[in-house]
TrEMBL record:
Domain N-acetyltransferase per the UniProt entry, residue ranges: 5-148
InterPro entries noted in UniProt: Acyl_CoA_acyltransferase, GNAT_dom
Pfam families for the chain: Acetyltransf_3
Highest taxon listed in the record's lineage: Bacteria
Protein name: N-acetyltransferase domain-containing protein
Species assigned in the record: Arsukibacterium ikkense
An example Gene Ontology molecular-function term: acyltransferase activity, transferring groups other than amino-acyl groups
């Protein structure tokens, strides 16, 4: 399945889809920020994200259809990654494929912060090569250091 998952940069044209994914009940339940966001808040966030050189926001596509999103926030020291899969696309291995693809494009230290009861995302992180480091305040920290 991973061979046919591809990542493309998100654009403002993806705003409605990203907002729908963001406000999905399960997405919010497993998000570090579980609050529902308004369209205005989301559009402002998306505009800021797309113009931020330290952030890359991608739409994952499978068989030509948008199935989720992955994000990377980079500093000089590390890359912090996060992801969401569309509700109708969950349980098909797509998160594993899209996160592994993202990780394969990064160099240096890669970090994921996952709520301690989000077992599915912990498995995704491990599949992508990240290993559990520790838990603090209900958040599990996973990391991977690329070779070289």
């Amino acid at each position: 399945m991973s061979a046919s998952v591809r990542l493309r940069f998100a654009t403002m044209a993806d705003a409605e889809r990203l907002l729908h994914w963001r406000n999905d009940a399960d997405t919010r339940r497993f998000s570090l920020n579980p609050e529902q966001v308004t369209e205005q808040q989301h559009r402002h966030w998306l505009q800021q994200s797309l113009s931020n050189p330290q952030r890359r926001l991608y739409i994952a596509e499978y068989a030509g259809q948008p199935v989720g999103t992955v994000r990377v926030d980079s500093t000089a020291d590390s890359h912090r990654i996060s992801w969401t899969v569309a509700a109708e696309c969950r349980g098909k291995g797509l998160a594993k494929a899209m996160v592994k693809l993202l990780v394969s494009q990064l160099t240096g230290k890669i970090i994921a912060e996952i709520l301690s009861d989000n077992i599915a995302s912990a498995r995704v992180a491990e599949f992508a090569g990240l290993t559990y480091q520790y838990t603090h305040n209900g958040i599990m920290y996973y990391a991977y250091q690329t070779p070289g």
